[in-house]
Each structure stands twice: as structure tokens, then as C-alpha cells.
Amino acid sequence: MDSVNKNILALRNSIQKCQIYKEYRKQRAIINSNPELAERVKRFRADNFRLQNESQKGTLLQNAQQLAKESAELRRNPEVNAYLDAELALCRLVQQICKSITEGIEIDIPGF
Questions:
Q1: Is the distance from CB of 38 to CB of 30 less than 8 angstroms?
Q2: What are phi and psi of 23, to 5 degrees?
Q3: Consecutive sets of 10 residues in the chain, 112 residues long: mean pLDDT of each?
Q4: What single-letter DSSP state applies at residue 65?
Q5: Which terminus of the chain has a lower count of CB atoms within 10 Å, N or C?
Q6: Helix, strand, coil proportions of the chain in percent (round to 5)?
Q7: Could you give the CA distance from residue 92 to residue 40 in angstroms, rounded to a whole number?
Q8: What is the dihedral of CA 28, 31, 34, 36, to 10 degrees?
Q9: 96: which residues sit within 8 A by CB, 6+ positions away?
Q10: What is the DSSP letter of 5?
Q11: What are the backbone dihedrals phi and psi of residue 83, each rounded to the nearest 5 degrees, phi first?
């Protein structure tokens, strides 16, 4: 297990040094410099997460439409747009890492 933990730390350090992570941190700092905007973005992200991960029978379409409207409005702000793009790039990097790890070991994960 020591070898695994050592490699996890090395991977984390590598991520922290990559341009994707640096850009995310930069954009997060810009958003956080405006507390009102940061709170609005935080609420949007939470609503988006809930929409994608919770079963909301009957209101799914309405909630998705409302979220799309909020997204379009928020993304008109270049700072918000840059932050959300940077966050998405970082999430995709983490997903790619997880996929690479699980593909390299024999573990049964149901496909979609």
C-alpha cells in the first residue's frame, strides 16, 4: 500500500503542476473576487449536480429548462464562462485518469 500511496501523491502533485489545474485555480480566484457572482455560480453548479444525479420524476424537463436558461445567462459573463470551461477541463482530466486506472486493472464496472 505504501507504493500506491506514494504514486497517488505523485499523481496529485503532477495534476497540481499541469496547466489545466493552474488555469482552473486562476479562474476560480477571479470568480471568488466577486462574492455575489461566486455565490450565484455556486448555486448553479449545485443545481446542475443535483439535476444530473437525482431522480426528479415529473419535474426533470422543467428543471433542465430552467438550468439551461440560467447557464446561458451566466455564460454571457466572460469570467463565469472561463471559470466553467476551466472547471470542465479539470473534471475531464480527472475522469480520464480514473478511466485509465480502471481500464488497467481487472475490476468489473457496469457499462452504460
A1: no
A2: -65, -40
A3: 94 98 98 97 92 73 87 95 97 95 80 63
A4: H
A5: C
A6: 80, 0, 20
A7: 23
A8: -110
A9: none
A10: H
A11: -65, -50
pLDDT score of 61: 79
Amino acid 112: pLDDT? 56
pLDDT at 26: 98
Distance CA 40, CA 94 (A): 25
- In order of their start, the domains of the chain are 2-103 (1.20.1500)
Whether 41 and 80 have beta carbons less than 8 Å apart is answered as: yes
Q: Give the chain's end-to-end CA distance (angstroms, integer).
A: 31
Cα–Cα distances in Å, from 47 out to 2, 40, 83? 39, 11, 17
